[in-house]
Design brief:
globular, 3-stranded antiparallel beta sheet, 151 residues, 3 strands
């Protein structure tokens, strides 16, 4: 049930898993598919390690915990934003697995990894691909490709 236009945690889980399923076929073809292990429940300091996603009347929350400490703590009222936040680590992990299987000598590993990330995000929709592209551009602005390091 929506409260203030915000999905319940159960509805949010259903939405995000539905979006994630859009990239399953391609990721399985690439032999890198990973089941999403996000916990759709409240999390706070002292909870188990992992990625958590939940909602309340004030918005959507994305938290990553390690050793009982909150490493990432984000909040939004935007359904696209929370969906992107939850997807990004899984897509990054699968893209890295793909890059490892297809590594190109003397090339910054991010070249192939980012290319694959964009392909996976495109499976979710053009808005997701554009957002990922924007994030990648920002990363490369501060940390350009360094093919010379991979000799």
């Amino acid at each position: 049930m929506e409260i203030n236009g915000i999905y319940s945690t159960r509805e949010l889980k259903k939405h995000i898993i539905g979006v994630y399923q859009c990239l399953e076929t391609l990721a399985k073809q690439d032999d890198v598919y990973k089941n999403m292990d996000t916990k759709f429940e409240f999390a706070n300091t002292g909870y188990g390690d992992g990625q958590y996603c939940f909602s309340d009347a004030a918005g959507y929350y994305f938290r990553c915990l390690e050793r009982g400490y909150i490493l990432t703590d984000k909040k939004t009222s935007n359904l696209f934003e929370i969906t992107y936040w939850v997807m990004a680590p899984w897509i990054s992990e699968m893209s890295y697995a793909y890059e490892k299987k297809h590594r190109i000598k003397h090339q910054d590993i991010r070249r192939l990894m980012f290319q694959k990330e964009l392909q996976y995000f495109a499976e979710l929709g053009e808005e997701y691909r554009k957002r990922a592209e924007s994030d990648i551009i920002e990363i490369l602005k501060n940390h350009p490709y360094q093919d010379g390091l991979f000799r």
